[in-house]
Design a protein that fits this description.
heterodimer, A: MetI-like fold, two-stranded antiparallel ribbon, 75% helix, B: mainly alpha, MetI-like fold, 2 domains, two-stranded antiparallel sheet, 15 helices, globular
Amino acid sequence: MAAIDGAADSGAMIGEGREEALDAVAGAAPFIAPALTLLCAINVLPLLWSVGASFFHLRADHLTKAPHFLGLGNYVDLMTDPDVWEHFRNTGIMIAASVATQIIVGGFLAFVFHRPFPGRRAALMLVLTPMLLSTVAVGTFFSLFYDPTFGVVSAIVRPFTGAPFAPLGTPFSARLSLIVADAWMWSPFVMLMLLAGLSGIPDRLHEAAEIDRLSPMRRFRSITFPAIRDVLLLALLFRTIESFNMFDLIYTITNGGPGIATESVSTEIYDTAFVLFESGRASALGNISIFVVVVLTRLYFQAVRLRRESL
Amino acid sequence: MAGASLSFSRNSGFRRSAVGYGVGVVYFFPVIWMLLAAFKTRRDQMATPPKLIFTPTLEHFWASFHRASADGSRVFDTGLDRDFMNSLIICFTSVGLALVIGCLAAYGFARLRLAGRDFYMFYILVLRMVPPITAIVPLYFLFRVTGLGGSYAAIILVYTAFNLPFAIWMLRSFINELHEPIEEAARLDGSSELGILWRICAPQMGAGIAATAIIAFVFTWNDFLFSLLLTSVDTRTVPVAMTRVVGADVGVDWGVFAAIGTIYLLPVVLVAFFLQGQLLRGATFGTVPR
């Protein structure tokens, strides 16, 4: 987490008599201007637009009609709509289950692959390929695996039950199917992050533990865990937010069904904006989800800072 | 790492190999399914139980790019070659732009005088986290109003902007690791800041730039949502074209779909194989020291 605190560190250095050197340093403005301009135009401006649009009744298919001012109407509508709460609940359940699976599977993979062995580079590619595939290909192939007639899942279950099995047929199994696809695709990413953390452990620590004949449990608690704690927290943040934003897999595997059981906040925004053309309402829902994301990121930074201070 | 492996016997190395390949093959299984589907004839695909031994065919690869007319007398283009070109052009241009603009900004944030640095860095990270779908609704309008809708410029700008936050964080962490006194010496010799970045920092950052490039490349290459809503038939990328194969009214042609998926996967796997170490460094987005 050095980079996060890097800014604070250099601030401290200024206080330690480096003013002279700093005077010679040019201002950062011309260097960061291109990046900030682009970010403002493509990321920030649309956000401001959507904050404005969320107060109006605005339809993308009637652009010539003057938008009708609603005040907080869209937000009130959303907050009192039981379907919206259902989507947040779905999203929450799927995030929790999927991220937990990714951490466990990713941890297992990191455990298998963190030490060198002959042919490790090629073996790692086998595991890394899922995250290199396009989500559309993954989603479409998993929907084939889940097909009741031709799918491999149905083929495995059929001999036991005697009937074709439709994994996407019930809300529970449909959610489970999505979680499996999402976790399969992204556990390798968690593994990569953990491997990055593990590679920071100096060899001499392991050698010392070897000499002291520490138990595997003790070794994990005193050497491995402290090294990966920060990456683990970061993996948790990244994967939570990416799962929160999950769209492609739902779009290609369940399309939100059965009913609205696997509809997430992202697919709900998509439907509202591009199927119903209710741009004002979609913007309001978008702003609510951005708020959730900012709070999560803040919490993460807070957690990192608290841990640092307690050291 | 090399030192650690010496302390283990040769035997345990082979055992770890066996375990690693075992786990790898199980994990890889769904991909094997796709690769096999790309080389199986339509009849072999539908066989139950699934066939593992079959005569491979390249017909699906041909069919990805060409379509014969009903009577077989004429052959049409499916336009997939164009989609591939689009993917390549859009990906390389936007990743390249993000690296250049990101390098400048990263140098500014790492080395130059700036008030409110933490504030900028936090909100730049937040921009990376914002659900893409929320940005697409307004961008859709923005491009419609400016007449950029469906153009290369529009989609390239969007991908550049969405790769930037990550590029800035990563590259800044790599610049932070460089030895600062060398830069200060150059500064005293009257070198401009741009000169320091170009002649002193950049040559030392090859691995860091490669790590940033490969992660940005994978995200852009495989993105579906932006391309779905912000490109036209002429500028669409392969993932969007793939959904057209699925949506065809004759039912999904799995062989063709698998063939396209396989061709599309190939360049990424090759790049990832050769830059595996960089992929590993890039996974933490430059927020964890290596």
